[in-house]
Design goal:
- The protein is mainly β.
- It has one domain.
- It has 1 helix and 5 strands.
- It has a 5-stranded antiparallel sheet with strand order 1-2-3-5-4, with no helix packed on it.
- Strand 2 and strand 3 form a beta hairpin.
- The longest helix has 6 residues.
- The protein is globular.
């Protein structure tokens, strides 16, 4: 678990830890949990808090989002967030 979580990620500390991240960063108030980097492409979970005013539609910022898979708690509604799988070129 990265030692210094972005401010937006602090509320999700336990959930993020369960995802075994290699890196965590913010994207305009949303939380990006990097789980894998392969061939210049990072992938993992993209957490959108309900209070966020930003959602990366149409590949904005290089993110491609899909409904989350691969973890039982990815239908994560508390504390008020929706989780997606993402891919992004570096």
């Amino acid at each position: 678990m990265p030692p210094n979580l972005p401010v937006a990620a602090a509320e999700y500390r336990g959930f993020i830890k369960s995802l075994h991240p290699i890196k965590v960063y913010e994207d305009r108030g949303n939380v990006v949990v990097v789980q894998k980097i392969d061939g210049g492409v990072e992938s993992g979970k993209y957490i959108v808090p309900f209070v966020s005013s930003h959602f990366p539609f149409g590949g904005e910022g290089g993110f491609t989002l899909a409904p989350a898979t691969g973890c039982p708690s990815c239908i994560y509604q508390g504390p008020g967030a929706v989780v997606y799988d993402y891919r992004k070129g570096q």
